[in-house]
UniProtKB/TrEMBL annotation:
<dbReference type="InterPro" id="IPR026286">
    <property type="entry name" value="MaiA/AMDase"/>
</dbReference>
<dbReference type="GO" id="GO:0016853">
    <property type="term" value="F:isomerase activity"/>
</dbReference>
<protein>
    <submittedName>
        <fullName>Maleate isomerase</fullName>
    </submittedName>
</protein>
<dbReference type="Pfam" id="PF17645">
    <property type="entry name" value="Amdase"/>
</dbReference>
<dbReference type="InterPro" id="IPR053714">
    <property type="entry name" value="Iso_Racemase_Enz_sf"/>
</dbReference>
<keyword id="KW-0413">Isomerase</keyword>
Length: 247
C-alpha cells in the first residue's frame, strides 16, 4: 500500500461564536436563536444544563452550580465570544454576578448575557421605564422577577401570569392561545410589554403582536439574542422579530 502524507491547511479565522446554555427541558430557545441567525456569519454552540421541577427560587438557583462544567464543554479549550445563559428566572434567583463568575471560570474571555439583564439593556436603549409583564410562573417567582425590575428603577404597571410550576409544561403552551392572551392585556400607562421565560413560544408572534397592540413587545429570547449579537458587534438589520432589532 502506498502512503501519501498531505499537509493540512487551517482556516485563518472563524465566525463570531456564541455559546448558549439552555435548560435541559427547554423546547424553544435553540429554535429561536436559529431562526434569527440562520444564514448569517455567526456560529452557535449549545449545551444543556440540568434543571429541577417544580420551579422554585431554590431550584432555579441550584442550577447555577453546574454552569462552569456546562460552559467548559462548549468547544473545550476554544475561545467563545459570548456566552448566553438561557434562563430568566434562574438568573434572578442565582444573580447575574454569580453566573458571570462561573462562566468566566471556564471561558474567561467571553462576554456574558442573560435574559433578564438583556431585557434591562433593551429597555435602556429604547428609553422605556414603564412596562407590563407577562410570565408563565407561580406567584413566588413572579415576585422575584418584579422586584428585580423595580430595583433597576423600572415601573411595573401590571402583571399577568399562568401560574405554571413545571418548565416542561411551559414549553407546551399553545402559540395561538398565547397570542390571544397577550393581545388582551390592558397596557394603559405602559410603554412596552415584557414576556418572560425562554420556554414560551413568543418570538415568532412579536411582530404581529406589536402591530395589533401598538406597543413595543420584548421577550426573554428576543432580548437575549439581541444582546448576544451586540456582544459580538453584529450590526446588520434584522426584520420580523420586533422593533427592538431596529433600535
Amino acid at each position: 500500500m502506498k502512503l501519501n502524507k498531505v499537509e493540512p491547511r487551517y482556516i485563518s479565522k472563524s465566525n463570531p461564536r456564541i455559546g448558549l446554555i439552555t435548560l435541559g427541558s427547554d423546547f424553544r430557545i435553540e429554535k429561536d436563536f436559529s431562526n434569527i441567525i440562520y444564514g448569517r456569519d455567526i456560529d452557535l454552540y449549545v449545551n444543556r444544563i440540568h434543571c429541577y421541577n417544580p420551579l422554585t427560587n431554590e431550584t432555579l438557583a441550584k442550577m447555577a452550580d453546574d454552569i462552569t462544567e456546562v460552559t467548559k464543554d462548549i468547544l473545550p479549550d476554544q475561545k467563545i465570544d459570548c456566552v448566553a445563559y438561557g434562563c430568566t428566572s434562574g438568573t434572578v434567583a442565582a444573580g447575574y454576578d454569580t453566573i458571570k463568575e462561573k462562566v468566566h471560570l471556564a471561558k474567561p474571555e467571553a462576554k456574558v448575557t442573560t435574559p433578564i439583564t438583556s431585557a434591562i439593556n433593551a429597555l435602556k436603549v429604547l428609553g422605556i421605564n414603564k412596562i407590563s409583564i407577562f410570565t408563565p410562573y407561580t406567584k413566588i417567582i413572579n415576585d422575584s422577577v418584579v422586584n428585580y425590575f423595580e430595583k433597576k428603577n423600572i415601573i411595573i404597571n401590571s402583571l399577568t401570569y399562568f401560574d405554571i410550576d413545571s418548565d416542561l409544561d411551559i414549553g407546551k403552551v399553545d402559540e395561538g392561545y398565547l397570542f390571544e392572551v397577550l393581545s388582551k392585556i390592558d397596557l394603559e400607562g405602559s410603554e412596552a410589554l415584557f414576556v418572560s421565560c425562554t420556554a414560551l413560544p413568543v418570538l415568532s408572534i412579536i411582530d404581529k403582536l406589536e402591530k395589533k397592540i401598538n406597543k413595543i413587545v420584548l421577550s426573554s429570547n428576543q432580548t437575549l439574542i439581541w444582546d448576544s449579537l451586540n456582544a459580538i458587534n453584529y450590526k446588520e438589520k434584522i426584520d420580523g422579530f420586533g422593533k427592538l432589532f431596529n433600535s
